[in-house]
Amino acid sequence: MYFQRRGFCQAKRLGKVPGESGMRASRFCFEAAALGAAMALGTGGPRRRPQHCTAQTSGAQRFGRHGIAMQAAKRPLARGDLKAVGDALTFDCETGNYHTFCPISCVSWLYQKIEDSFFLVVGTKTCGYFLQNAMGVMIFAEPRYAMAELEEGDISAQLSDLAELRRLCTRIIEDRNPSVIVLIGTCTTEIIKMDMEGIAPKLEAELGVPIVVARANGLDYAFTQGEDTVLAAMAARCEVADHVPTVPAALPGAKSHAPLVIFGSLPDTVAKQLELELKKQGITVSGWMPSSKYQDLPEVGPNVHVVGVNPFLSRTASVLVRRKKCKLINAPFPIGPDGTRAWVEAICQSLDIEPQGLEERERAAWQAAKEYTEILKDKTIFFMGDNLLEVSLARALTRAGMTMLEVGIPYMDKRFQASELQLLIETCKDLQKLVDRG
């Protein structure tokens, strides 16, 4: 096992971070969704006969002009409280593997977000080629990630995985002195059954640096779920307190409220905008996950309210709720002006705060984006399943005046996206665009 030397990841040339690139534009601004829609305009390809959808089936799900269909989750889906959603939407499942961007690409934005981290991707030459071409970062930029390329001795178990990773991690600490090392597993480490979870605690005890293991292989996860596995592993490291102190009000005259933690990786400018929107409601954000420094991971506990900013973070939410006993705010996601308003309203309701002026804020945002929505009006769009943002984008673009021909999504957790699905139904009903499948 050795550091790949193909122009982007030598251990001795890992240094200053290049300028942070944004994942998406402002959530109250609709430009990103409008541009994405303009790129995807057109009709869908030939339809295949869908398989009957069951809770255990995986594959591509779609929704057509006469209804809505999305991919089934690989795990049993919650029922009862989601009966209304199930009755209003038509879910079809097309069996077979889904094809998405590789989830190890999450390294490209997470290493910039967590400034004192180092990401070590353990894989083959193919993984190295992908990272080099996908991110386009040369060694002169000295990024804080590297590729540990597996050799024949690693794959055939002739070499000790513990010894090899100890050598590489020691070299990383000497050169870069990170606060945390994140080991990213790939398809190859899954196939050869490399016990990274068993190796990490031993290395952490020897080297004195936290080592977090995240499985981001393309066999089990879609594009954006790589971030979900990393944040879920970090959520397991958050300290738990029996009672986290309440947060003082952000505005004079407002009341104090329970601690609020937001999870999901966003550019600093977008995160600041969301904090300002919450501050206008008298809400103070106690912490973000991930934070810019690993040591600044927020304290969690039974009285801490947590909310996500992206629809692909269901595993992170599960860790926070089941293992850390936090209170999850099930809200639509802040994508588009309508989603941002619903997201803030859900947070206010959970914290027992009366929202103020959100409808005016939404109208102003739509008015500011009128130049783009006029372009999108009465046009049709088809979504291929790729990044789990499809449902949120479909809802926002429907509100912008578009017609959804079909939406595909590689993984659907109906419990985590229940509020988003409900808002999609309400949007379609308001605009009279939801028709039963014939």
Automatic annotation (TrEMBL):
Keywords: 4Fe-4S, ATP-binding, Chlorophyll biosynthesis, Iron, Iron-sulfur, Metal-binding, Nucleotide-binding, Oxidoreductase, Photosynthesis
Protein name as annotated: Light-independent protochlorophyllide reductase subunit N (DPOR subunit N) (LI-POR subunit N)
Keyword 4Fe-4S: yes
InterPro entries (alphabetical): LIPOR_BchN/ChlN, Nase/OxRdtase_comp1, Protochl_reductN
Pfam families (UniProt xref): Oxidored_nitro
Top-rank taxon, per record: Eukaryota
Keyword check for Transmembrane: no
Every Nitrogenase/oxidoreductase component domain range: 102-421
